[in-house]
Automatic annotation (TrEMBL):
Pfam families in alphabetical order: p450
Organism: Funneliformis geosporum
Protein origin, superkingdom: Eukaryota
Recorded family membership: Belongs to the cytochrome P450 family.
Subcellular location field: Endoplasmic reticulum membrane
Name by which UniProt lists this protein: 8838_t:CDS:1
Organism ancestry: Eukaryota, Fungi, Fungi incertae sedis, Mucoromycota, Glomeromycotina
MF terms in GO: heme binding; iron ion binding; monooxygenase activity; oxidoreductase activity, acting on paired donors, with incorporation or reduction of molecular oxygen
Record has Iron-sulfur as a keyword: no
InterPro entries xref list: Cyt_P450, Cyt_P450_E_grp-I, Cyt_P450_sf, Cytochrome_P450_Monoox
Predominant cellular place of this UniProt entry's protein: endoplasmic reticulum
Claim: ATP-binding is one of the keywords in the record: no
Keywords: Endoplasmic reticulum, Membrane
Gene Ontology, cellular component aspect: endoplasmic reticulum membrane
Length: 381
């Protein structure tokens, strides 16, 4: 079988129209550029300092969220069924989007969007002017922009440009460009901040700082340049990565699956109570994460059931043979991740939501082949 590099080439139809053919991670068709960006991103995302920073920021956000919800209960709560404490019904979908947006943005870019407090002010009529902040606008546009790439990749140009359809195409494109410029401005402002800081020890270990300082004298992480890429990343490269992180980090399905499986929810609560000793004022640390074994298993199971992407497409550079199949060059291939994750040959009861299959203490029938779990592309995404 030929090297992975020969399977890397991606279909560029539509990508060049979006200026995404040789930038970022998810849709980068330039192997050298992708390889460099991927190495930097992996090193940054896996940095202990970055993880500790992220855990601290997320913990702070949930402390703030608790205060916001307590205030909401105080203002709008009612006593139900002779309960001793007030309760209030909330639109959790709207809240969850903002929770994930707030946590993703602050741990990635140290950017506090305040979308939670803004939403609270709106539903409690504190924001009488109902003026949308630029961060809220970014969040709304981001959900629209995530459909843009798929639209341009799957629909031929002559159809995209037909009357009526081109109105929708332009609508998606304008929102994608808006979110990109938002990220670029964020990157430019942060680069100016970094240039004015002489001591790199004073730089916070957030992902944006790490990406901007990679391969520079202020490098927060160890230099990971390769022969083809020894230069720092440009504002455009960093900006596109930030947008990709934001877009992939806001939608999540953990709460949905946990909410539909009360036994799983109870086991999560039991583990949390065991680790934190029934305290309600606990603060989560980076070291605590390793103790939450079942929570990690739940995350893996959710990603198995609902992976980040359903398929991975490639464009074969040279002819090749896989098993008994002879595949000519210039053939477009696709890995069906959803099918792989639910294949009975690799998974016991594949349609069942069962986090226990990822626990080392489970019986041998529940162990799994790591090659059959491709949450983030198995190293070639």
């Amino acid at each position: 079988m030929t090297p992975t590099k020969d399977y890397f080439v991606r279909v560029r139809n539509g990508l060049d129209d979006l200026q995404k053919g040789n930038i970022g991670i998810l849709f980068n068709a330039d192997f050298n550029s992708w390889s460099y960006v991927r190495k930097v991103f992996n090193r940054v995302a896996g940095s202990p300092n970055a993880l500790r920073f992220a855990v601290k920021m997320v913990d702070n956000i949930f402390q703030d969220l608790e205060k916001i919800w307590n205030s909401l209960i105080e203002e709008q709560g009612q006593f139900v069924n002779n309960e001793q404490e007030k309760s209030v019904e909330i639109d959790f979908v709207s809240w969850s989007k903002r929770i994930f947006a707030e946590t993703t943005m602050i741990q990635t870019a140290r950017q506090h969007p305040n979308v939670l407090s803004a939403y609270y002010n709106r539903i409690t009529n504190r924001d009488l002017d109902n003026i949308q902040s630029i961060n809220e606008e970014f969040l709304d546009r981001l959900f629209i922009a995530t459909d843009c790439v798929q639209h341009y990749l799957t629909i031929p140009p002559f159809i995209r440009n037909l009357p009526i359809i081109n109105t929708y195409s332009n609508y998606l494109y304008e929102n994608l460009m808006w979110t990109r410029h938002y990220a670029y401005n964020l990157v430019k402002d942060r680069r100016k901040e970094i240039e004015n800081i002489e001591d790199k020890e004073k730089l916070s270990p957030d992902m944006l700082n790490m990406l901007l300082t990679a391969n520079t004298p202020n490098d927060i992480i160890q230099s990971i340049s390769n022969e083809s890429n020894k230069k720092p990343m440009s504002d455009e490269e960093v900006g596109d990565i930030i947008v990709e992180i934001f877009s992939e980090g806001i939608d999540a399905f953990i709460l949905y699956n946990v909410g539909n499986n009360p036994d799983v929810e109870q086991r999560i609560l039991d583990e949390i109570e065991k680790v934190f000793d029934y305290r309600t004022d606990f603060k989560i640390s980076y070291e605590d994460l390793n103790k939450l074994v079942y929570v990690e298993a739940v995350i893996k199971e959710v990603l198995r059931i609902r992976p980040v992407t359903s398929t991975i497409s490639r464009f074969l550079k040279h002819s090749d043979k896989v098993d008994e199949y002879n595949i000519p060059s210039s053939t477009q291939l696709a890995i069906n991740i959803v099918s792989l994750h639910k294949n009975q040959n690799y998974w016991k009861e594949p349609t069942k939501f069962s986090p226990s299959r990822f626990l080392a203490s489970s019986n041998n029938d529940e162990t799994y082949n790591k090659s059959t779990l491709m949450n983030f592309g198995g190293g070639i995404l």
